[in-house]
Amino acid sequence: MNEQEIMKNASKVKIYGDLDNVIIALLEYKSKNENVYVEFNGHKLYSLLDDIDSCYVKVTGKSRQEFKNEEEAWREEYRKREAEEKTKARNNIKGWVEQGKDFVYPQKMKDWEKCVKARVEDLYHGLDLVNAIQAMEALKQNDGDFATAKAIIDDANHSGASYGMVMNIIVNFSKYGPDFYEFMEPEYSTMPQNKAYLDKVRKENEAYEKENAEKKPSQPGEE
Questions:
Q1: In-domain check, residue 96
Q2: The pTM is what?
Q3: Which of 133, 130, 123 minimizes the C-alpha distance to 85?
């Protein structure tokens, strides 16, 4: 059969997996001289017409080796960039811990340091931490200006996971945390488990406020 006859008479089959899995299956059909084709990413790949490279050229525009070389180069660049970002974040640990002294209760500073170090080693290498710090600084400077803090978080275009981490940091380390969470998530904040946790953190904050006020040195003229 010529090419046109092969294409006309080929039976469509379903093959699941990535491109390499599809090619392996087509080669098995070819070894049995079975004329089939599969649609992969909008391209028709034929058992009796295509080989490994022609399948790759149809789907990616490159031979398999060219595609794999580019893929490995991308991976290497990604690994290099990840290492650089992690090193940069680690160098910022001390500074981020110090920043926390402006808005974290002294009683929570050990936990704050642990949080900073954990966020540096996480997927975002401290980016979620930086955004949380910016929001917490805005909350303190503007005495609980929730709208400004919200704008800072919104402008960061978080994914669901990074947004959740930012909010978790703020709830646990800003004195405005529980109230701010209720402002940002009025529906979720009323869920029993969430409400109980917010109330717990709020009570802890009130206790820290009282304890720190009692420790505060008296000013001249104060009894």
A1: yes
A2: 0.68
A3: 123
Enter the tokens of residue 1: 């059969």
The string of pLDDT tens digits covering residues 110-144 is 999 999 999 999 888 899 999 999 999 999 987 87
User: What is the per-residue pLDDT across 174-190, written as a single tens digit (0 to 9) for each?
Assistant: 999 999 999 999 999 99
- What's the number of CA atoms in the CB half-sphere (13 Å) around residue 80? 6
Contact 47, 30 (CB under 8 A): yes
Total domains, the chain: 2
DSSP 25-83: HHHHHHHTT--EEEEETTEEEETTT--HHHHHHHHHSS-HHHHHHHHHHHHHHHHHHHH
Whose tokens are 């109980």? That residue is 196
Q: Which amino acid is at 3?
A: E
User: What's the mean pLDDT in 18-46?
Assistant: 96
Per the domain annotation, does 80 fall within a domain?
yes
The boundaries of the domain holding residue 34 are: 7-91
The span from the CA of 46 to the CA of 146, in Å, is 60
